[in-house]
Amino acid sequence: MDGDKKDVVRKRGRPKLVDDAARRQSILRAAHEAFVELGFSRTTTALVAARARVSKRDIYSLFATKTELFAAVVTEHRHLILDLPRPEGEDLPPLETLVRIFRLDIDEAAEFEREAILSLIVRESVQYPELSDYLYENEIIRSREELIDWLKAETLKGRMVIDDAMVCAGMLMDIVFGALLPRRRLRHRVDRRQRIEHIRKRLEIFLRGIR
C-alpha cells in the first residue's frame, strides 16, 4: 500500500515539472520576440508577462533580473551561432567542419533566427556595454574561446598548421560574422545562398593560407 501511495505522489508531481518547463519556454519565446522587436531598454517584464500569459511573479521566480532573462534568451539561441565543441571522433575535411561549426548548413528559417539573435547581441552590446560584460563574464558567450580551443586541438592532431590560434580564431569570426551581419537584410533566397557560397570560398582561402 505504501508503495502505491508513493507512486501516486510521484505521478502527481510530474505535471508540475512539465508546467514549469513549459512556462519557462513560453517566457523565453515572449522575451526573445520583445527584445528583438523593441530592444533591451524598452522591453519590460510586464510586457513579457503579458505576451507569455504569465504573471511577473512567474518571471521573477525563474529570472532574478531583466539582464538574467536576456542572458537566458541568448543561451537558448547560441547554438545557431557556433556549434562547438564538436562530436568525438568526427573526421570531416576541415572546410566541411568549419561549415558545420559556423552553422552555414542550416535552413532558411533557422537563418532568420540566427540573424535576429546576432543583430540583437551586437546592437544591445553597443548600447549597453555592461550587458556585453555580463554575457562574457558569465560565459554565456564563449564563441571565440571555444573556437581557439578547437583550432589548438586540430593543430595537435596535425590537421592544421597554426602558429597563433587566437589570431586565426579572430580571422575566422571576422570572415563569417562580418558577412552574416550585412548592412541590408537579404530577403531573397538566391541572395542568401550566394552569401553562404562566398563565405565558403573565403574559408577555403583561409585554409589554403595555413597549409
UniProtKB/TrEMBL annotation:
Keyword annotations from UniProtKB, A to Z:
DNA-binding, Transferase
* Residues annotated to bind DNA: 44-63
Pfam families found in the cross-reference section: TetR_C_7, TetR_N
InterPro entries tied to this protein: Homeodomain-like_sf, HTH-type_TetR-like_transc_reg, HTH_TetR, TetR_C_Proteobacteria
Which Gene Ontology terms cover its molecular function? DNA-binding transcription factor activity; transcription cis-regulatory region binding; transferase activity
Key word Transferase present? yes
Where in the numbering of this chain does the HTH tetR-type domain appear? 21-81
Q: Which PROSITE patterns match?
A: HTH_TETR_2 (PS50977)
Q: What is this protein called?
A: Crotonobetainyl-CoA--carnitine CoA-transferase
The source organism is Pleomorphomonas carboxyditropha
